[in-house]
Amino acid sequence: MLNEEVIWKSKRGELLHLLISYVQVAYHGGHVAVSGGKRLFWLYDITPLRRAEQARLRSERRLAEAIESISEGFVCYDGEDRLVICNSCYRDLLYPDMEIALTAGKTFESIIRNAAERGYVTDAIGRVEEWIAERLRQHRNPGEPQVQRRNNGRWIMVSERRTEDGGTVAVYSDITELK
């Protein structure tokens, strides 16, 4: 069974996405031949599926652009505490020149461990493991916003909230001028 997706234009000029499924018996000279003189194929109109897929992609782009336009750092972790998305402000505010990539799938613990071990968080200096344990406890049971002192002199307020699916979203604000 072979499947081929094609786009046809209707008499009204509307583009239709069609999926043609057919049985291939032999392939000679660029043409499909089927047994006997009969042609057996199935034709599916997948236009609604393709339109829904395009709408989803537009929606995802719009959300990513909105997150990127926020003036605070924004980050979202899934229910397994793996990075889903973050904006460039988050990267620049918390991890300037950090050599690890903040890519989707990285665990929250690995990200904060790297930051603590490299001295980005002043409160973690000389007590990395204790600070990581405290930070993980705060992250898993978010409450009031917390303040972090960074090695570059910045003060960052972290506001975290849990999502319905067990994930976490956080906003990081530079409050250095207020301090």
Short description:
By secondary structure, the chain is α+β, with helices and mostly antiparallel strands. It has helices spanning 47-69, 88-94, 108-117, 128-140, and strands at 2-9, 15-22, 26-28, 31-33, 41-45, 73-77, 83-86, 146-149, 155-162, 168-174.
Question: Your description of this structure?
Answer:
The protein has helices at residues 47-69, 88-94, 108-117, 128-140; strands at residues 2-9, 15-22, 26-28, 31-33, 41-45, 73-77, 83-86, 146-149, 155-162, 168-174. With 179 residues, the protein is of the alpha+beta class. It has a five-stranded antiparallel beta sheet with strand order 7-6-10-9-8. Strands 1-2-5 form a three-stranded antiparallel beta sheet, with helices on one face. The model has no long low-confidence stretch (mean pLDDT 88).
What helical percentage do the residues reach?
25-40%
Estimate what percentage of residues fall within beta strands: 25-35%
**What is the overall number of helices?**
4
Shape: elongated
- Global mean pLDDT: 88
Tell me the radius of gyration: 26 Å
Order of helices and strands: EEEEEHEEHHHEEE
